[in-house]
Amino acid sequence: MKAFLILEDGTVFEGTSIGSTREVISEIVFNTSMTGYLEVLTDPSYAGQAVCMTYPLIGNYGITDDMESGRPWPDGFIVRELSRIPSNFRCNGTIQDFLVKHDIPGIAGIDTRALTKILREKGTMNGMITTNENYNFDEIKPRLAAYATGDVVSKVTCSEKKVLEGPGLKVALLDFGAKNNIAKSLNDRGCEVTIYPAHTKAEEILKAEPDGIMLSNGPGDPKDCGPIIDEIKKLYDSDVPIFAICLGHQLMALATGADTHKMKYGHRGGNHPVKDLATGRVYISSQNHGYVVDTDKLDPKVATPAFVNVNDGTNEGLKYTGKNIFTVQFHPEACPGPQDSGYLFDRFIDMMGGVQ
């Protein structure tokens, strides 16, 4: 079946329908990872977006157990070529069946390199995936312009508190769309991890007397999270050590008076170099974000830059002055090949008093 990707600038790509055949409007973004498409599909940070994979062949090892959450979150999936006959000893299904099962529409057979160049040159924009060959762009255009991701954190967060038992330090993890590997990285280091819904009051978290607080990744514009930011300010004012990743990093910055802005096309992939400003060492990181903290508006009495993106100089982490708080924009729990930034979890454990 034919499918069409219609961008709000009027560009149209014709390809083949994959997954669900329903029509969808979403924000179109691209990811440069060569592997890890299942982790991308199940990353809650993609809620409200349709993902274009720049690597040309997707699905060749099928569906495995490498899930970052219990379900896929993107509104749509865009690929050059979809492998319909996967081969891997861990494979238990195809991407096509996975997309159909979860009602996610997609398009294959388009020039994903051309699409990526458009998004890099003009910036991220909204688009529609449809199988309707008789579409009318004049009717679609206002619908594309009106689309916004909205409050997607409420959509992806857990519905109730849950605990991963552990013999060591107690960590409260605020779930704004947390990837499974964040809790696992702490749990593997002996921590007991209590996962809280995103809108949990700071008083409830502090009453449990955690040794540390983890603020997770998540989707959307951090400025849409006003009530959550108010609670994070209360957590900042406590003396509990805090480690934050991605959206959590942005929310902590907003809670302490800094600012954020939307990037032209964001950072999404498993090959982004970040530099530790304290050591000068560069790490290859996994990233997924469309917003960034403005270091120009950062008060050094509150926080100072700790990491920087080597490619474009944007902020990748903050160290908070006089506080046991540090935050990063990238994903140290992910394994895009190297695992060397996992030491940040060990730093967090040291901040909480070390292994118990």
Question: What would you note in describing this structure?
Answer:
The chain has 356 residues and is α/β, with parallel strands linked by helices. It has 2 domains: 2-146, Glucose Oxidase, domain 1, CATH 3.50.30; 153-351, Class I glutamine amidotransferase (GATase) domain (Rossmann fold). Helix content is 23%, strand content 33%. A 10-stranded mixed sheet has the order 10-12-11-13-14-19-18-17-15-16, with helices on both faces. Strand 18 (315-320) and strand 19 (325-328) form a beta hairpin. Helix 8 (226-237) packs across helix 9. The longest helix has 12 residues, at 226-237.
Query: What is the typical, i.e. mean, pLDDT?
Result: 96
Give me the CATH superfamily of the largest domain. Answer: Class I glutamine amidotransferase (GATase) domain
Radius of gyration: 20 Å
What is the helix/strand order? EEEHEEEEHEHEHHEEHEHEHEHEEEEEH
Tell me, what's the shape? globular
**CATH topology (fold) name of the largest domain:** Rossmann fold
Tell me the strand order in the biggest sheet: 10-12-11-13-14-19-18-17-15-16
Largest sheet: 10 strands, mixed
The first-level CATH class of the largest domain is given as Alpha Beta
Helix fraction by DSSP (H/I, runs of at least 4): 10-25%
The assigned CATH architecture of the largest domain is 3-Layer(aba) Sandwich
Instruction: Figure out the total of helices.
Output: 10
Number of strands: 19
